[in-house]
């Protein structure tokens, strides 16, 4: 068996994307800043890509900045905005379940004179407007809430959060990396001022990302150099990867409706079977307001890294929020924010579907999961058979 | 090196752990060591006869290397004299397994400590008892209780529907509080029951509570309620480990005595 069920961590590049990229390594190698014909080809490609990606999120071409990926986009959006607008205020609000990169950017801003307040989420990982309202005042310049959570898959009412911020005159950033390609994103409808997306999360190459900056919003650059991207992100544009991202967007626009329906079928089948088959097992995240591709469980009495290793042995790639599998040996901050205890966060299993999964992959999981759970529970001093 | 990059020997002991289980009898001593940071827990059962470890079994809640180190030390200790067994170090265990990822050397390599703990218990002819008991938990006030009254703190429950889908904590105040916790499970999947007891007293109510979806925190007390305007988090004191930790919660029911 060889089943990949960790699409949230990394996605293969679609072969159609690879094909679109190939000419840009050798034949069309120009630098968009050059004024000759070879450079003109690159300029044209760059601007066509910008337009295509703008269309994907209902933005204007001028509102799209190319970066090296999602992490850089969030850095540029949050740090760039905060530094440029510190005369307006020094308070920043983020949700407890933001991606770790946003938490660490917030920490950096704290070290640089900003004050950061974190919005607690409910037991399903949802952010309530009231909790944001409790935290903002006239010194608040920026709110960041992710479109969907990368671990538990819970989605947010982004357009309502965006509207709340807009009414208050606060700039709203959303990290849409987990959601892109799975939920239609519309920066107009969603009242978003700054948006982070990446190329790899829609089956494009790694090394390209976009920061959407709404017209009229001013940010400082973080990378200084030759003045590319309107001076906001210097450095020769990564044209092959940008072309790849454009192609990925085109494919996504065509295939997303059918694809998400397919994932949802797999997800629902898996969730139903797991909860039915395994005793003392729970779904993490929201039962319905969740990404169509995401199933996230926890099992009483067992630990996630052991689960992961057992799956690995059977040829199945999955993920876990367990402390034992993380670099810092800390349990997932998202699971803790749901109100789970450390040992509960420990026993988590994350399964995310993607473009190359088939329905039989769900059957593959169900074939081995009951045996794995039973074996690990027999080893565990925390699991007693009483319930 | 990734934290899960294990040697073949570690993987072998993870997949086929030796000497899993428990032992019973007067000549059996139990050792228990936990890592409070990550929640790993190891239990060892040793049967000692004529100064030698005649039999040894273990149970482990933890990652791959936690399971493998426990399994390995049972092989190393079996048949050895007690003194020899006491000399087995964490490093010996790791070496026998052809090494562990550096980050795992301390956190999950608890087997030598757990074995030592079991032998010590044999020597003092005692089963493990929590070091700190309920005597620590004097009746002191809960910080924030007045501030959050009606902002998430309830001293009585008349309308259960206000708890719909809320993470709710119920503080042990006897039978009535157990009834409330059970009733709340109809409204929300997350009910946490906090008691200073080590286990529930026998009785129909407590049996129903143990069998329900209510998460019971034994040997624990509520120290402080935190939040901006409404209850958002609580600080819990684990009396057994003498540790404090935060827990996200929406509502707290503290019935009047």
TrEMBL record, chain A:
Its cofactor is pyridoxal 5'-phosphate. Pfam families: Aminotran_5 (PF00266). SUPFAM superfamilies: PLP-dependent transferases. It catalyses: (sulfur carrier)-H + L-cysteine = (sulfur carrier)-SH + L-alanine. One of its GO terms (molecular function) is metal ion binding. It comes from the Bacteria. Residues 3-363 form the Aminotransferase class V domain. Keywords: Iron, Iron-sulfur, Metal-binding, Pyridoxal phosphate, Transferase. The keyword Secreted does not apply. The keyword Metal-binding applies. Belongs to the class-V pyridoxal-phosphate-dependent aminotransferase family. NifS/IscS subfamily. This is Cysteine desulfurase. It comes from candidate division WOR_3 bacterium SM23_42. The lineage of its organism: Bacteria, Bacteria division WOR-3.
UniProtKB/TrEMBL annotation, chain B:
One of its GO terms (molecular function) is iron ion binding. Residues 5-127 form the NIF system FeS cluster assembly NifU N-terminal domain. Pfam families: NifU_N. GO terms for biological process: iron-sulfur cluster assembly. Coiled coil: none annotated. PANTHER family: IRON-SULFUR CLUSTER ASSEMBLY ENZYME NIFU HOMOLOG. This is Nitrogen fixation protein NifU.
């Amino acid at each position: 068996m060889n089943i990949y069920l960790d699409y949230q961590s990394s996605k293969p590049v679609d072969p159609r994307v690879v094909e679109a990229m190939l000419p840009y390594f050798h034949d069309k190698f120009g630098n968009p800043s050059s004024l000759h014909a070879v450079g003109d080809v690159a300029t044209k490609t760059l601007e066509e890509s910008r337009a295509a990606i703008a269309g994907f999120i209902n933005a204007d071409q001028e509102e799209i900045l190319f970066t090296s990926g999602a992490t850089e986009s969030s850095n540029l959006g949050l740090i760039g905005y905060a530094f440029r607008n510190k005369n307006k205020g020094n308070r920043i609000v983020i949700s407890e379940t933001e991606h770790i990169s946003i938490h660490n950017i917030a920490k950096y801003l704290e070290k640089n004179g900003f004050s950061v307040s974190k919005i607690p989420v409910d037991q399903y990982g949802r952010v309530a407007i009231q909790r944001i309202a409790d935290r903002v005042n006239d010194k608040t310049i920026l709110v960041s809430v992710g479109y969907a959570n990368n671990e538990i898959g819970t989605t947010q009412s982004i357009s309502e959060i965006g509207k709340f911020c807009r009414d208050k005159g606060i700039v709203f950033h959303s990290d849409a990396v987990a959601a892109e390609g799975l939920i239609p994103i519309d920066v107009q409808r969603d009242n978003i001022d700054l948006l982070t997306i990446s190329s790899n999360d829609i089956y494009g190459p790694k090394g390209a990302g976009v920061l959407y900056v709404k017209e009229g919003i001013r940010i400082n650059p973080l990378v200084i150099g030759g003045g590319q991207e309107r001076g906001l992100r210097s450095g020769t544009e990564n044209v092959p990867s940008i072309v790849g991202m454009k192609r990925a967007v085109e494919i996504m626009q065509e295939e997303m409706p059918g694809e998400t329906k397919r994932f949802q079928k797999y997800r629902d089948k898996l969730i139903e079977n797991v909860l039915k088959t395994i005793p003392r097992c729970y779904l993490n995240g929201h039962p319905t307001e969740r990404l169509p591709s995401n199933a996230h469980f926890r099992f009483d009495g067992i630990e996630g890294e052991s689960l992961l290793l057992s799956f690995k042995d059977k040829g199945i790639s999955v993920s876990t929020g367990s402390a034992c599998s993380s670099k810092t040996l800390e349990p997932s901050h998202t699971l803790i924010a749901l109100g789970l205890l450390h040992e509960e966060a420990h026993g988590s299993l994350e399964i995310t579907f993607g473009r190359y999964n088939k329905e039989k992959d769900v059957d593959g999981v169900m074939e081995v999961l009951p045996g794995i759970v039973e074996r690990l529970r027999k080893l565990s001093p925390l699991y007693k058979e009483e319930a | 090196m990734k934290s899960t990059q294990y040697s073949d020997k570690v993987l072998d002991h993870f997949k086929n752990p030796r000497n899993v289980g428990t032992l019973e009898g007067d000549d059996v001593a139990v050792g228990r060591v936990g890592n409070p940071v990550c929640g790993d827990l190891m239990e060892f059962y040793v049967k000692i006869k004529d100064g030698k470890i005649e039999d040894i079994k273990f149970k482990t809640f933890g990652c791959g290397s936690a399971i493998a180190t426990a399994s390995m030390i049972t092989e190393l200790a079996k048949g050895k004299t007690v003194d020899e067994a006491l000399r087995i170090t964490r490093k010996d265990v790791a070496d026998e397994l052809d090494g562990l990822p550096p980050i795992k050397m301390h956190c999950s390599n608890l087997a030598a400590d757990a074995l030592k703990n079991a032998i010590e218990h044999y020597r003092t002819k005692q089963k493990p008892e929590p070091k700190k008991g309920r005597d620590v938990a004097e009746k002191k006030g809960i910080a924030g209780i007045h501030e959050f009254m009606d902002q998430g703190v309830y001293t009585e429950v008349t309308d259960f529907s206000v708890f719909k889908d809320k993470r709710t904590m119920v503080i042990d105040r006897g039978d009535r509080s157990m009834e409330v916790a059970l009733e709340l499970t109809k409204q929300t999947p997350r009910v946490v029951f906090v008691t200073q007891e080590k286990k529930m007293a026998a009785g129909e109510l407590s049996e129903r509570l143990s069998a329900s979806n209510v998460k019971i925190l034994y040997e624990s007390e509520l120290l402080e309620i935190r939040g901006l305007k409404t209850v958002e988090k609580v600080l819990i004191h684990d009396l057994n480990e003498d540790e404090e930790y935060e827990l996200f919660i929406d509502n707290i029911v503290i019935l009047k005595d």
